């Protein structure tokens, strides 16, 4: 058999983990990487260096590929549409990917679909106009409110909680508004998420009790496979843990979360893995209320547990889906699986950290991304599987292994 080619734009840990599954399935992964020593380039033979908006590099990447896909949403929309018009199988399509890349477009689409989400509005214009929009929104929906940059945000960047009206004039909220009003020259890696920001998304602050994620994969022929709904725990705007399935979640709420995910996938013709991040509001004696927070159309941090806790991992499923191959089973292989992220701590760990972590818990599945240490950087994750009633014990064990890998123990 000749190996089908999947071209992926991006050279971080997600493409690296796609490569692991591609090797097992006999798929040729070709990744456009940002640097020759990056996470994916270290394990992928066919890894040309280039930028996502470099038309020549992307065209060369897609040549002869069965599908062009992505490990991040920050793509050149015009380039993707041109490639699709030329016959390249862009999966997900530019129309679908827009909903993951542009939060205002996503909010509009969720309204059209009638799916539950926070109240929202768009604020644009000069500083006075933006502040007036936020004040008017808060007068209707209450303080605090959430400000988001429509594009470019990730891992807590581009999201700001504004607690009261006076915050609009000073501090970070005032800086954000002034930056947007003057053209949005925020610079790369700044709190606005990088790039030019010319409007702000204003959202109702939902008093959620926990955050959930509904993951599914859909093929171009319309087949869908859904994993159990998971609970995610955030730290400093970044996913730190995922518990699968979400402990104690009302079965009706789990079904509703999966229905929302399937509806988004089908209505907007999403191909590949789709992660729907949700807020859950739970009150004793009342039905759980769900609100769509954000979308991701590629393997997602909340699905890393599937590598060791499901029959088919999200990375293998994404490859199957974009090539329109039969999807694998998404059934869990144990009563529970816990994922804990390894995020760089204040001090670089010692050379013996990996060996000590392995010895501390031989059942722990350690996944490292080949990245150099940096405080606050995602460096890997640890998965542990066990019985459904043992989630807390699994969390403590996984955290202990991560503490050693971080250099904290």
Automatic annotation (TrEMBL):
<keyword id="KW-0547">Nucleotide-binding</keyword>
<comment type="subunit">
    <text>Homodimer.</text>
</comment>
<keyword id="KW-0067">ATP-binding</keyword>
<dbReference type="GO" id="GO:0034028">
    <property type="term" value="F:5-(carboxyamino)imidazole ribonucleotide synthase activity"/>
</dbReference>
<dbReference type="InterPro" id="IPR040686">
    <property type="entry name" value="PurK_C"/>
</dbReference>
<feature type="binding site">
    <location>
        <position position="211"/>
    </location>
    <ligand>
        <name>ATP</name>
    </ligand>
</feature>
<dbReference type="InterPro" id="IPR003135">
    <property type="entry name" value="ATP-grasp_carboxylate-amine"/>
</dbReference>
<dbReference type="Pfam" id="PF17769">
    <property type="entry name" value="PurK_C"/>
</dbReference>
<feature type="binding site">
    <location>
        <position position="148"/>
    </location>
    <ligand>
        <name>ATP</name>
    </ligand>
</feature>
<feature type="domain" description="ATP-grasp">
    <location>
        <begin position="107"/>
        <end position="323"/>
    </location>
</feature>
<feature type="binding site">
    <location>
        <position position="103"/>
    </location>
    <ligand>
        <name>ATP</name>
    </ligand>
</feature>
<dbReference type="Pfam" id="PF02222">
    <property type="entry name" value="ATP-grasp"/>
</dbReference>
<feature type="binding site">
    <location>
        <begin position="203"/>
        <end position="206"/>
    </location>
    <ligand>
        <name>ATP</name>
    </ligand>
</feature>
<comment type="similarity">
    <text>Belongs to the PurK/PurT family.</text>
</comment>
<keyword id="KW-0436">Ligase</keyword>
<dbReference type="InterPro" id="IPR011054">
    <property type="entry name" value="Rudment_hybrid_motif"/>
</dbReference>
<dbReference type="GO" id="GO:0046872">
    <property type="term" value="F:metal ion binding"/>
</dbReference>
<dbReference type="GO" id="GO:0005829">
    <property type="term" value="C:cytosol"/>
</dbReference>
<dbReference type="GO" id="GO:0004638">
    <property type="term" value="F:phosphoribosylaminoimidazole carboxylase activity"/>
</dbReference>
<dbReference type="InterPro" id="IPR054350">
    <property type="entry name" value="PurT/PurK_preATP-grasp"/>
</dbReference>
<protein>
    <recommendedName>
        <fullName>N5-carboxyaminoimidazole ribonucleotide synthase</fullName>
        <ecNumber>6.3.4.18</ecNumber>
    </recommendedName>
</protein>
<keyword id="KW-0658">Purine biosynthesis</keyword>
<comment type="pathway">
    <text>Purine metabolism; IMP biosynthesis via de novo pathway; 5-amino-1-(5-phospho-D-ribosyl)imidazole-4-carboxylate from 5-amino-1-(5-phospho-D-ribosyl)imidazole (N5-CAIR route): step 1/2.</text>
</comment>
<dbReference type="InterPro" id="IPR013815">
    <property type="entry name" value="ATP_grasp_subdomain_1"/>
</dbReference>
<dbReference type="InterPro" id="IPR016185">
    <property type="entry name" value="PreATP-grasp_dom_sf"/>
</dbReference>
<dbReference type="InterPro" id="IPR011761">
    <property type="entry name" value="ATP-grasp"/>
</dbReference>
<dbReference type="GO" id="GO:0005524">
    <property type="term" value="F:ATP binding"/>
</dbReference>
<dbReference type="GO" id="GO:0006189">
    <property type="term" value="P:'de novo' IMP biosynthetic process"/>
</dbReference>
<feature type="binding site">
    <location>
        <begin position="293"/>
        <end position="294"/>
    </location>
    <ligand>
        <name>ATP</name>
    </ligand>
</feature>
<dbReference type="Pfam" id="PF22660">
    <property type="entry name" value="RS_preATP-grasp-like"/>
</dbReference>
<comment type="function">
    <text>Catalyzes the ATP-dependent conversion of 5-aminoimidazole ribonucleotide (AIR) and HCO(3)(-) to N5-carboxyaminoimidazole ribonucleotide (N5-CAIR).</text>
</comment>
<dbReference type="InterPro" id="IPR005875">
    <property type="entry name" value="PurK"/>
</dbReference>
